[in-house]
């Protein structure tokens, strides 16, 4: 009988040690999970900040583009501008001078078109970057929800 009690006591001791090890492993896993959760939260906050900043940059670029377009259109379409242009053209009697001015105006128009195209390209890139960041954020959010929703 004593031998059975000793065996039972040894088994109880072994099970207690195993339980302690399992509890330690559980605590380690919980602390790791907490660290990963904090890391994920920081990363998600950073992505949200990037999205907000990119959206602000996009809005600012759109406002700048609209302002430039409005200034260009309003300056070109005023009656005073049109009248002054016609007077300037009427005063030109030399065909070579007219060709030279036409060449200068064409160059200026080409530069303005290049600037507009560059601005449009930057606008598209900003939109693509925003879309990419938003997609990444949505994917991360979906992954997070899948991990935390056992269903």
Number of strands: 0
Outline = rod-shaped
| Structure classification | mainly alpha
Amino- and carboxy-terminal Cα gap = 51 Å
| Cα-atom radius of gyration | 36 Å
Largest sheet: none
Low-confidence stretches: none
- Overall pLDDT confidence: 83
Strand content: under 5%
Helix count from the secondary structure assignment:
3
Order of helices and strands: HHH
The amount of helix comes to: over 70%
Structurally, the number of domains stands at 1
Summarize the model shown.
With 151 residues, the protein is mainly alpha-helical. Helix content is 95%, strand content 0%.
Describe the structure.
- This protein has 151 residues and is mainly α.
- It has one domain (2-148).
- Helices cover 95% and strands 0% of the residues.
- It is built from three helices and no strands.
- It has helices at 2-77, 79-91, 95-148.
- It is rod-shaped, with a radius of gyration of 36 Å.
- 0% of the residues are buried.
- The mean pLDDT is 83.
Question: What characteristics describe this protein?
Answer:
single chain; 151 residues; mainly alpha; 3 helices; 0% strand; rod-shaped
